[in-house]
TrEMBL record:
Organism: Microbulbifer taiwanensis
Signal peptide: none
Protein name: Molybdenum cofactor biosynthesis protein B
A Pfam family that the UniProt record links to this protein: MoCF_biosynth
Pathway(s) where this gene product acts: Cofactor biosynthesis; molybdopterin biosynthesis
Lineage: Bacteria, Pseudomonadati, Pseudomonadota, Gammaproteobacteria, Cellvibrionales
Gene: moaB
Length: 175
């Protein structure tokens, strides 16, 4: 039986992780876009970090956030392509309790309208771990904008129907 709670006005605690060997707080336009977008939608920034594109550093940071009962959503930007050090999918997919198969598919379908067949090189993905939604999007600011405006803004809004992720994130001691 499904347990539905009215979370229509819920402000979520969201952590943003930029995956990059070269970005700093001064030039991290993608991470900054996500921070501004989530705040504009009424959510709270729980934490923001920049981590090198290293499987173990990524897993360590995201695992720490997954274990933190106050963080409900993690959005990562970067490391989803095919370059030599791109390792976000390999680092984070093993942490998922459940994979959100449709996230990457939908992101690529939407992105196709914007950048054509180049979207095939995006390995955007999402999953749930310990009642925390983890969404991994490409590192460009345009890709972050696409993910936020076309998928995440609605799915992180408790009033969006017929369904959204808020009810899956507000369980147990995470309230």
């Amino acid at each position: 039986m499904s347990h539905h709670t009215d979370n229509s006005g819920a402000a979520l605690n969201i952590a943003v992780l930029t995956v990059s060997d070269t970005r700093t707080e001064e030039n991290d336009t993608s991470g900054q876009y996500l921070v501004e977008a989530l705040r504009a939608s009424g959510h709270k920034l729980a934490d923001k970090k920049i981590v090198r594109d290293d499987v173990y550093q990524l897993r360590a940071q995201v695992s720490q956030w997954i274990a933190d009962g106050s963080i409900e959503v993690i959005i990562t930007t970067g490391g989803t392509g095919f370059a030599g050090r791109d390792s976000t999918p390999e680092a984070l997919a093993p942490l998922f309790d459940k994979t959100v198969e449709g996230f990457g598919e939908l992101f690529r379908a939407i992105s196709y309208e914007e950048i054509g067949s180049s979207t095939i090189q995006s390995r955007a993905l999402a999953g749930l771990a310990n009642d925390t939604l983890i969404c991994c999007v490409p590192g460009s600011t345009g890709a972050c904008r696409t993910a936020w405006e076309k998928i995440l803004r609605e799915q992180l809004d408790g009033s969006h129907r017929p369904c959204n992720f808020v009810e899956h994130l507000r369980r147990g001691d995470k309230r």
